[in-house]
Each structure stands twice: as structure tokens, then as C-alpha cells.
Amino acid sequence: MDYSIEHARVKELVEKAQCTGSTPLDVVNCIKERLREAGYAPTAAQLLDANVDPAERPEQARFIRLEARREGDRNTHIFTFALLKPGGVYKPLWLQSAVVEK
Q1: Residues with Cβ within 8 Å of residue 16, at least 6 apart in sequence
Q2: Global pTM exceeds 0.90
Q3: What domain of life does the native source organism fall in (predicted)?
Q4: Predicted pLDDT at 2
Q5: Which residues on adjacent β-strands are paired with residue 97?
Q6: Number of Cβ atoms within 10 Å of the Cβ of 83
Q7: Are 2 and 89 a contacting pair, CB within 8 Å?
Q8: Which residues, other chains included, contact 8 with Cβ-Cβ below 8 Å and sequence gap of 6+?
Q9: Three-state SS letters, the chain
Q10: Pairing between strand 63-70 and 91-100?
């Protein structure tokens, strides 16, 4: 399966939706909806700090890491975004995606 094409579709959906919010969790929820539109079921979401450790508070988050699965696919898909805050509004910046094959 060509995961790069699937993941590019997710990237495009997130960028077109212009996922923004007043909190990092607003952005996470928007990205989760885009994953669902692309046929994925989000299974885990993490807000990570500048050291890529779990953020103690949402406002300390600098990265978002989402795990998802597709029906009939045993693999885990991982999507990582930087979390920017220009003008006081949070928005994601696509960094990378990966697949953990099982």
C-alpha cells in the first residue's frame, strides 16, 4: 500500500481546513476530524513540549502527535505536527508521518 499518497491526503485536508483554535485541544480536535474524513480512526493524541516530552499543561505544547488506524489495516499511522501560535491563535504545521507495520 502506498502510504505516502494516503498521508499526503491527510496533510491536504488539514491544510485546507485551516485548523486553528484558541487552545491546542481545539487544533487536536480539528485534526482528528480531518483524519476521520480521510478514513482513519484516531486512537491516541499527545501534546508534547519543546523537549518532545508530554506537555504538563496544554499551553506548554509545541508538538502534536496523533496515532490512527484504518479499517482492515493492522498498522498504526502516526502524524506529527508542530504547534504554532502566531497572533495568539494556535495552528498546526505538518512535520511528518510514519507507519508502524504489524
Answers
A1: none
A2: yes
A3: Archaea
A4: 83
A5: 79
A6: 19
A7: no
A8: none
A9: CCHHHHHHHHHHHHHHHCCCECCHHHHHHHHHHHHHHCCEEEEEEEEECCCCCECCCHHHCCEEEEEEEECCCCCEEEEEEEEECHHHCEEEEEEEEEEECC
A10: unpaired
Please state the domain count of the chain: 1
CATH number of residue 89's parent domain: 3.30.310
Range of the domain at 77: 3-100
From the CB of residue 49, how many other CB atoms can be counted at a distance below 10 Å?
14
Q: What is the pLDDT of residues 16-72, one digit of tens each?
A: 999 999 999 999 999 999 999 999 999 999 999 999 999 999 999 999 999 999 999
The string of pLDDT tens digits covering residues 87-101 is 999 999 999 999 999
